[in-house]
Amino acid sequence: MKRLVIELCCVIALAACGNSKEQKMAEEDSTAKAMLQGVWIDDETELPLMRIEGDTIYYADPQNIPVSFKIIRDTIYVYGSNTIAYKIDRQSEYSFWFHSLADEIVKLHKSENLEDILAFDNKEVEVIPTTEVVKKDSVVTYKGTRYRGYVYINPSKMKVIRSSYSEGGISVDNVYYDNVIHICVYEGKRMLYGKDITKKMFADIFPEEILTQMILADMNFMGVNNKGYQYQATLRVPESSVYSLANITIGFDNRLNIKKAE
What is the pTM of this model? Predict the structure, then answer.
């Protein structure tokens, strides 16, 4: 399933449509859920789009995380990193139409080909974290003293869940892996400072709903001034052009200060 990158702010705004009182008060339609069990094919592409088993939706793309769902009256609520509500336009035993967030009607029919289930063999996300460590170093001179700054971008197993939308306006959650960045400063052979930087350290300057979908992507040693050692961190939403910069100052007293870049 092709994915279209949408600005992160749209993801957050559209998620609000799932927070309805109707969802909390009304009973789930167990008959409608029972009719959804099975593999569903996109009418337009004739490709498997999703498999429904119990109260879980599995997607053909193994990077898309399985999500739970409920049907209440004429709406299907999908519970991923955000709760999304889709208006049901038509439902029968072999037909399922719903209104996507892109204001399009997604038309599906139930598969009668047993081989279509093979598209969902891998129910678990198959994103393998990289093991390559990226090393960067820079040399600067301040007041006649030579400093060398080292940056080690270390992959981790910390998962980052990012919401995006398919071309038809269906919300999907993808998984990526964050980095831990080690920075250190040397004066000659003497190490003056060494510390691991994680995404959690930026919680005071970025809203939680944005930070949770970003990875700590890069770190650059900017130099030394009278305030201390200067770094700039890049936090990025995976597979998108959305990113934010943060300035890090490590004082000569080894205290760390983080501010959002102007």
Answer: 0.67
Residues in contact with 48: Cβ distance below 8 Å, sequence separation at least 6, in sequence order: 39, 40, 41, 42, 60, 111, 116, 119, 120
Which regions of 92-126 does DSSP assign to beta strands (E)?
A: 95-99, 105-110
| Angle formed at CA 30 by CA 26 and CA 33, multiple of 5 degrees | 110
CATH, domain 134-260, list 2.40.128.510, 2.140.10.10, 3.40.50.1000, 3.10.350.10: 2.40.128.510
- Whole-angstrom Cα distance, residue 74 to residue 158? 38
Phi first, then psi, for residue 153 (nearest 5°) are -90, 105
- Looking at residue 6, its pLDDT comes to 34
Residue recorded with tokens 């080292």? 150
Share of the chain above pLDDT 70, in %: 86
Q: Measure the CA–CA gap between 162 and 197, rounded to whole angstroms.
A: 21
CATH of domain 3-120: 2.40.128
Q: Which of 217, 200, 8 is nearest to 130 (CA)?
A: 217
Q: How far apart are CA 113 and CA 147, in angstroms?
A: 66
Identify the three-state secondary structure at position 35: helix
Instruction: Answer whether 87's CB lies under 8 Å from 169's CB.
Output: no
Instruction: Provide mean pLDDT across the span 177-190.
Output: 90
